[in-house]
Amino acid sequence: MGESKNYELFINGEWIATEEKMPVLNKYTREPFASISVASEEHVNQAVEAAKTAYKQDWAPYDRYLVLKKAAETLVERKEEFANALATEVGKPLGECRGEVERSALTLEISAEEAKRIHGEGVPVESAQGSENRMAFTVRVPVGVVAAITPFNVPLNLVCHKVGPALAAGNAVVLKPAEVTPVSAVLLTKLFEEVGLPKGRLNLLTGDGPQIGDALLANKNVNMFTFTGSPRVGELIRQKAGLRKVALELGNNSATVVHYDAELEKAATLISQKSFNNAGQVCISVQRVYVHENVYDEFLSSLKEKTEGLKVGDPFDPETNVGPMIRLEEAERVEAWVNEAVEMGAEILVGGKRDGAFYSPTILTNTHSDMKICRQEVFGPVISIEKYSSEEEVIEKVNDSDYGLQAGLFTTNLGFAMKAAKQIEVGGLIVNDASAYRVDHMPYGGVKRSGTGKEGPKYAIEEMTEERIIVLNL
User: Which end of the chain has the least Cβ crowding within 10 Å, N or C?
Assistant: First the structure.
């Protein structure tokens, strides 16, 4: 990717350059390495019209399977190309980026398989008095045009989590990637074009998020919105979407509990790994850690040692564990939140330093739930550690949150694990791992301000289809 490279819009099978351009920064150097075309309202309406026309064309499930399977295989073949693009535009370490490409290919592969498994069920209407001569069954049909709006932090795999299931279900997609990390989405769109995706099934719009989002919401031919991002924008989409389908993944301030019977070394290792990857810019990154008072000192010593061993630097350096944050302003915000917490009595055990867009992996102690660093979503490389003394107390602490995406629990006590499974208010509880565990075929989604609907191809397909009943009067 040369510095002068401009990436274009993709509408109805055609690449379209626009006069207005927007730079894309290398997040390590903070210098532009490419630019994107900026879509207008007219481009939005053209893309929606192309998608509407395309989804009305027959596209057999097995043909969808073949295209998605070929896309998955081709993505694996081009792993280094995509990983380099991700490391450049996101700023996370190259090793993490390779992992994201592998997961993205798997997400497309799973979507391909699910395209062959979409099914309805028999409905025993004949059991109703007067309907003895009737039979009924359901089928699942595509919703139509799906607007997919994706975030900056996992810009390839989260695109695949929306585009893969939408195509598998027989829909057509208008994709709007984050303007700060659009290149991987453009490369994926080119890949789909090369493997034979029918014209109009995937349309790509780059440019100003609010402008494109407003135009999509104003276009009544969009049948569903699937969005990953902030609660503020998610609520706005839900309000403007009206009666149309909406799936929202809106983040978290994830809690992980370390009980007195936990394997402390394992817990410290996994929490250190899953708190600071992608500079903490992951919806399920560990943010709040609750440690039983009996093992607090021992656990904290181990976590401190592991965190101090993390190297911050160039994403292309194989020794780097943590890269820059997505914007300088985000690093400054995290710095301000940490400083505010310190003023309120928190203590910095590790880190607490900013160097431009880099923020060092940070552990805070002596925190409490009124601090912004605990109450809101940090979305940065910062965790807080608090003590607890009883199961009931820690469950209450975990639930004292506006969010409920995922939580982690380290314990060998099956009774406590079952109690937590029933009482902790989240979309997913991860036992003997941190909150940030995810594989791509599991249902993924939250409660409260973490959103509505599920990702994971099988579950996303349910969101992206309508159930239709067919009744036969024999």
Answer: C
